[in-house]
Amino acid sequence: MSGPVTATWNLDRTVDGAVTVGIGALIAATTDNVQALAVYACEKFGSTLAICDSTIKTIQTKVVPTPEPPYLSFLKSYLGFPKNDCASDLGRSVAGLRFLGLAAALISSMEVSDAAESLGVMLRRTKPEGFDKLPSPRHLRDLLRVLKQRCASSGFTDLTLHWHFKLYTPVAMIPVTPAGDPRSAIAFPNANGLDELVDAFRQLHRIGEATVTRVIIKTWGSSFTEWCLGTPPAVFTHDGRKICGQVEQDVCIIHLPTTDLRNTSAGIKIKVDHTIRTFEDLVGDGDVNLKHPINTRWSGMPSIDQYGMWLLSSNGLDTGDNKRAFQHLIPYALYHVMTCLRFSCYPAFDHERGLEGWLHAGEFLNTMSPRSSLAEDISDLRLCPFPAPPVIVAMLCRLTGLSNVQLQPLGDGVRIEDLPFVKVHLQALKASCRCCKCLNLLLSENAVYKYCECDAFLDKVSIVIADILALSLFVFPDNLRIRIPVRHHQNRSHDFTTSILRIISTGTPTVTNSHLLLDWALTLAGHDVNTELRAHNWAASSSMGQAIWPAIFDTNGPTKYGFLSLKFDRGVFQYEEESYTLVKAVEAFGNDDEVELAADQHTSSTPVAESQNHYPGLRANWRVQVSDDNLKVGLGLVGADGLLAYATVSPCRALANLSSALLVERCPHAADETLEPPDQFAAYAYPIDPTRLIRSENKVAVVAVSGMNDLRLLSLACGDWYAPVVLRGNACLSCCLLVCRRSTHPILIL
């Protein structure tokens, strides 16, 4: 371990005894808007911590570095962390690195308020005599909150889950739900218990040989021991059976059955023994009245691989008949959901009712019906929010640990419940289920309500499928971390999984909203932006050190697969030397003296005959402004002379309109083939409002912006939400107009 571990802080004092705070702490505190005293006190406190060299190296490589920030052109800002923030300042000293090691373990495992409470107790124990000005709980919370952005990537959660899967196995014979509470499988001590555990490690390093015993919180206690000391503890059952390690190791963790505990809410007793004794001596004290309560509000940020193991384990899909049935059905169920899940009901467009009628018709269709169905060849032109199937299969394999998986269609008339292994498993669940449905009882017969075990199994399958589809949205997700416990997993009535469950259970094509898919994906990454998504004004956000934004805002060009793809990177948004964690889309903003661009010579009276760009002097322009603590972004037009034109429109409209759009990628003809004669029932429309022509002339509105992806994105963002649009890929104009008429979609963007 680098440097000595002291019993109290080493303060920097002046000649007259006053405490001095370095300029680095002042700059860091100003950068992160926290109290300098909190930064200073926590760094000095770090000298009292026993943190091993391997953990310090992890902090130096994963937490402290500030990589060169990438530039996001649509936000006109950089993405990353300030170079002189609190983590950077603390990373310049060994004591600061030790504190970051402790902070990473705490804020990777618990709420900031719990971590601040524990830290406050530790500071009071180790403060030097005569130093009474400690940081307040609020100041500690503020500091830990800004450090959480960086510390989420430390990997402590992966270590904790590693110990969880190591200890809670049939071999270890430790029940997965100790004390009757599934959350206590990974619980941590309360503030006083943590203080005693950290102090025990301090004594162990300063005095020498010692043994810490009677730690009932096996998983978190084991990972925290290895994190701090660099060596794993020895873990034994109460009757002396070794689970791992040797009794001679410095830290011995003894599993006590809940029947031996006088207070089942208690979870830890720290006992430091400075003599090496036999195991019988360690457990023979007779006192199992554990001192400190446990806290079950555990949380974490594991990698995708560790999360996949946790996902299957927490849903009971990793062992026994549940596992066999799940592995049998998942290739079929995932294919079926991908095929039947719709993000628009595609109702027929009626010129007499106009756009308002089209939107009204779609609002009330939750499942596909004859009123909303497209011809099969036209339906194949729908855009898919998910990436191509091979990418989804790769995510399936990564989350579940399966290999050589191929998505399989079901035969005509066959449902998921008809698959052989699934059918047998559901019959077995039904035989043991005590719900009214499985017992053929009516609620009026005084039956006790119980949740159906068959429904519970399919619920869990739908959650896994939802996670696979949502995580497949992330481009290159190797470094993505998942926030657990996942809030939506605890809500069994979320509309996204309800749609998936309906497809699995009935085989019926079902319509859901694209913002529900985004909400599920962003929640997995620790972003709580449900309000912004429902208001259709989420454009980007950063949480837990992970910034996420729609990939199409970078590329501008929609493709057949993945129009809801998400990009992410570490950091927060840096705009004009300020940091922001939320970017909202706006409907309109700008100065009153904006100059409207002169109309192009191509108007609605020009015959539609060719696929060209009729607006070579126009460009889409991303506009950014600061609003309170958030950024706001929108799309507008700029002319060749640099003058801005028209009000800014929300880029989120483009995402919504892609949900109901059709894409004609190719056709047998030359892409630049002209119409002979010109189409008299179509007319050119302006990029800024292609729906104006529909309302006035009842013609197919053709937006001639061929080859200009930025103008195509702008056109998608203009007009009404969920507008009926056809996009041209590399097909000829004639075939694109044919698709417009067969699908009744009245807008064509070239």
| Average pLDDT | 80
Please report the total strand number as a whole number.
25
Q: Low-confidence spans: pLDDT under 50, at least 5 residues?
A: 13-19, 170-184, 258-266, 276-290, 360-371, 590-602
Category by helix and strand content: alpha/beta
Shape by Cα distribution? flat
- Return Rg in Å: 30 Å
Biggest sheet descriptor: 7 strands, mixed
Task: Note the gap between the termini.
Answer: 65 Å
Give me the oligomer status: single chain
* Strand fraction: 5-15%
Q: Helical proportion?
A: 25-40%
Distinct helical segment count? 27
Description:
The protein is α/β, with parallel strands linked by helices and 750 residues long. Among the domains are: 129 residues, no CATH class; 144 residues, no CATH class; 123 residues, no CATH class. It has 27 helices and 25 strands. Strands 12, 13, 14, 17, 18, 19 and 20 form a seven-stranded mixed sheet that branches. Strands 21-24-25-23-22 form a five-stranded parallel sheet, sandwiched between helices. Strands 1-2-15-16 form a four-stranded antiparallel sheet, with no helix packed on it. Strand 18 and strand 19 form a beta hairpin. 48% of the residues are buried. About 9% of the residues have low confidence.
